[in-house]
Amino acid sequence: MTAEVAVMNSQAVALAADSAMTINYPDGQKIYNSVNKLFMLSKYAPVGIMVYGVGNLTGVPWETIIKCFRGELGEERLPHLRDYADSLIAYINGHKFMFTEALQEQQLFGSVVRQFRPILDDVDGKIREKIAQAGPIGDSQVRAIVAASIRKAHALWTSADRLPGSPANHARRIRQQWRRRIETAIDYTFQNLPVDPTPRNRLIDIASLVFTASLFPDNVSGVVVAGFGEEDYLPSVVSFDMEGVLLGFVKVRQNAEKSAIIGSRNPAAIIPFAQGDMVSLFLEGIDPAFRQEVEHALEDFAAGLADALVIGTGATGRRESTLRRQFDQVRATPAKQFFERLDSYSVQSHVRPVVSAVANLPKEELAGMAESLVSLTSFKRRVTHDPETVGGPIDVAVISKGDGFIWINRKHYFDAALNHQFFANYYPAGSSQATTTTRSSGGGGARARK
To answer: What Rg value do the Cα atoms of the chain yield, rounded?
Structure first.
């Protein structure tokens, strides 16, 4: 897991990311605190990128993808920030050698098994429930339960919207090329459970739709592109979820809730990514988990009132049913008013004052705020019993129209004094950036700029 945040106003956007990476093994977890998640997307344009969640796309590390794309982009500057995001997606879709057939096959198997797991859990739950109610059950009943669960999942997948831009024959090509691998995934997931031919064909349908339907698992890569296009004079952030690449198509969707454009109606924005509970607490004045608990407690309180009403009136039978139905009908309005008042207080007393202050912060303060919010999340994990899935050095950058991408904090896995060639090669000899920097800074400036 990770914690990242974007803080922006009309001047600039500040990005901050921790360095923790969690690897899950069969016998536990291992956490490393030295991972890079924040990068320049272009050496020449004011654009940055952050990644979180799964650290690779179809087996290729995001750092490799980003830096190869950056090399191909070169000195080209695109009109709008969204063009950089679209160009990155097009680069991934068009790369024939980065995502090998073996990696794609592995991606397919993992994605299909993840989508089969909920079906298996549903089958297990229904079998346990049936046994608890009536004792041991026969093979025919198990077959019926398996078939019903698969039929329900099949209806969900076949009725889901198709991903925009997905090739019309994508599902058919997946089925044709990897039918045998899909069969292996079915056997691996359901093992000794009886899966008859019709349910099995439905599972094959689901597998072929995994990279076509707009249904995503929880464990995807989050990609955040931020900054300015050549024709943009106010910053913006656009966020995407990506699952993987199959047959020249990356499964991707925009995360509209985690995207923003600065303008007259939106003078500032604070956007958390991945573990954003402490950012929400700071911004809204209430922890999201605490609010959810309030909702559950209110539901239990209302149910208790209904019970007390029934007991107090001595109602039974039809009268009791009528009272409970009437109570359910009238309790919705007070509950709605309760949360509307809670939200209004949060907006008036917390969100608006903070956003108003952020709208006027200078660039240095934007960077400090972004770093503090990530640090706060890290501190919370460190002093509680939660795993320290946020931690390590915090990389911070500020992107502005005039100054471009500026590192505020940046870790290196190497000693800069021992690796002069890295800095000498960072900008190719003869590039406009190298020439401009050297002339303005007098020899040593090229290294300082990097």
So the answer is: 27
Q: Do 254 and 136 share a domain, yes or no? A: no
Q: Could you tell me if 141 and 257 lie in one domain? A: no
Find the Cα–Cα–Cα–Cα dihedral 385, 386, 392, 395, rounded to 10°. Answer: -140
> What is the C-alpha to C-alpha distance for residues 293 and 369, in angstroms, rounded to an integer?
29
Q: Are residues 223 and 307 in the same domain?
A: no
CATH number where 74 lies: 3.60.20.10
Same-domain check for residues 404 and 418: yes
User: Does residue 436 form part of some domain?
Assistant: yes
CB within 8 A of 83, min separation 6: which ones? 229
Q: Residue 366: inside a domain, yes or no? A: no
Cα separation of 49 and 197, whole Å? 47
At 171, list the tokens.
């599902």
Task: Tell me the per-residue pLDDT of 371-428, one tens digit each, with 9 for 90 and over.
Answer: 999 999 998 888 888 888 888 999 999 999 999 999 999 998 888 888 888 878 777 6
pLDDT tens per residue across span 421-431: 887 877 766 66
Whether residue 49 contacts residue 15, with contact meaning beta carbons closer than 8 Å, is answered with no
Domain containing 350 equals 283-358
Query: Comparing C-alpha atoms, which of 224, 255, 229, 223 is closest to residue 81?
Result: 229
Residue of 218, 219, 207 lying closest to 177 (CA atoms): 207
Residue 447, pLDDT above cutoff 90: no
Closest CA to 404 of 142, 143, 228, 272: 228
Q: Is residue 369 part of a domain?
A: no
Between CA 446 and CA 434 the distance in angstroms is: 6
Phi/psi region, residue 191 (left: phi>0; alpha: psi -120 to 50; beta: rest), is left
CA-to-CA distance for 229 and 79, rounded, in angstroms? Answer: 5
Domain count for the chain: 3
At 414, phi and psi to the nearest 5?
-135, 165
CA 281-284-340 angle, 5° bins: 130
Q: Where does the pLDDT of residue 444 fall: very low under 50, low under 70, confident under 90, or very high at 90 and above?
A: very low
- Residue 324, exposed/middle/buried by CB under 10 A (0-12, 13-18, 19+)? middle
Tokens 């890569």: give the residue: 221
What is the per-residue pLDDT across 191-226, written as a single tens digit (0 to 9) for each? 989 999 999 999 999 999 999 999 999 889 999 999
- How far does Cα 70 stand from its chain's mean position? 22
pLDDT score recorded for residue 431: 64
* Residue 210 placed within a domain: no
